[in-house]
Specification:
Blueprint: H1 6-9, H2 11-18, H3 21-28, H4 33-58, H5 63-90, H6 100-112, H7 117-137, H8 146-151, H9 155-170, H10 176-196
Helix pairs in contact: 2-10, 4-5, 4-6, 4-10, 5-9, 6-10, 7-9, 7-10
Bound molecules: (4-amino-2-methylpyrimidin-5-yl)methyl dihydrogen phosphate.
Length: 199
């Protein structure tokens, strides 16, 4: 089964992760600043966790998947610098401790280190495809949020997600549905964490 079949096999879970109220509020400008700032600080932590996960995964993927994962790693390093700039502009402290959903997601990434390569690649594709679809739903975004919406909807990012799709399809996961639904639930919990912090 190609990984792109997964969202339509789990439509309710997919909708919860990619059409969350957080994203509608970024689109129409009703997002509380505190909710957005919580998301930003926690997402910077997530990206640092993802960088570590992806670096370890790169070491064990087959030859054809190496280039897309290596390119993604460089992009993650640049993205961390971008988060630092955005945090500085908004006067946010990126040293804030991880909230429970961020810690739980880090724990999931740690478990994926011990999973087979196919499962880990399906997880990585799901992580990135969720953000592509979620931020597309927020397009174009209210004043002040365009940079964030553009970051995860630009053509280069869609190309990266397509590259991860090919990598994941190259090494089928024994139970793709299980890892997909687990990652998607972690994504939904992440939006809810930001929302609960301020709404
Ligand atoms: C991504 C992210 C996408 N930044 N945060 C969460 C909670 N899920 C997925 O990763 P990237 O590296 O920002 O494209």
């Amino acid at each position: 089964m190609p990984v792109t079949d997964l969202p339509s096999r789990h439509p309710d879970a997919w909708r919860a992760a990619t059409r969350h109220a957080f994203l509608g509020a970024v689109r129409d400008g009703t997002i509380p600043v505190a909710a957005f700032d919580t998301w930003l600080v926690q997402d910077a932590r997530f990206v640092a966790d993802l960088l570590r996960f992806q670096a370890r995964l790169l070491a064990r993927v087959p030859r054809p998947a190496q280039a897309v994962l290596a390119g993604g790693l460089v992009a993650l390093v640049d993205e961390l610098a971008w988060f630092e700039e955005q945090a500085a502009l908004r006067g946010l402290d990126l040293g804030t401790p991880a909230l429970p959903a961020t810690a739980a997601y880090a724990e999931l990434l740690g478990r994926l280190d011990d999973a087979d390569v196919g499962t880990a690649l399906t997880a990585l594709w799901t992580i990135e495809r969720t953000y592509l679809d979620a931020w597309s739903h927020a397009r174009p975004g209210a004043e002040g949020y365009h940079a964030f919406v553009e970051h995860w909807t630009q053509p280069g990012f869609a190309d990266y997600v397509a590259g991860l799709e090919a990598a994941a399809d190259g090494v089928p996961a024994p139970d793709a549905d299980a890892v997909f639904t687990e990652v998607v639930a972690a994504e939904t919990a992440f939006w809810a964490m930001a929302q609960d912090s301020a709404w």
